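Morning!

This is the sequence you dropped in the shared folder:
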Amino acid sequence: MRIPALNGRKIKQDLKKGFSEFAEGGFEKIFNQIDQFSIKKGVDQMGIQRFVNQCALMAAGSGVVTGIGGITTMMIGVPLDVLNLITQQFRVTMAIAYHNTGNYRFPFEEFFKIVASSLKADTKLAISKNIMEEVAEKMLLKLGSKTAQRLVPIAGAAIGGTINYLFIKQIAKGLQEQYQ
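The structure's back. Tokens below.
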């Protein structure tokens, strides 16, 4: 069985189109699917730090799954990982806003202003992810091709899970600093 060649330009165009369509209404759809009362309940029962940690672990889980199978799971997993990461970011944002204001109901427009101001952490993590990927690549090259073939999925899972976890924690930290 022959694997068809991938058209990089077509994939890039399709991704660009998908992200554009997603930005036009996808964020609001994700927002509308989140039960704001359950976030209030979760924060009340667990406390804000445990709730944030739970969201970070859920984000890490999709990062691990996306990275573990190499290119196969990446093709399917990346959109799901992005969706989960955005959902966890929204949940953390709502939780911290509730914890600091006592309000757990937000209209989308007001909520999105909070999200937009929390994205300072994104730049730092993009740099961290690039550095981690470069280090992993260099380590695998030194280990040799047979060992590298076995470790690529492990490295991908570790990087994906770690970056997602740190992203949610950084978002939470930035939001908590805004309320101080």
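Headline: Helices lie at 8-33, 36-46, 48-68, 71-101, 108-117, 120-143, 145-178.

More detail when I'm at my desk.
O.
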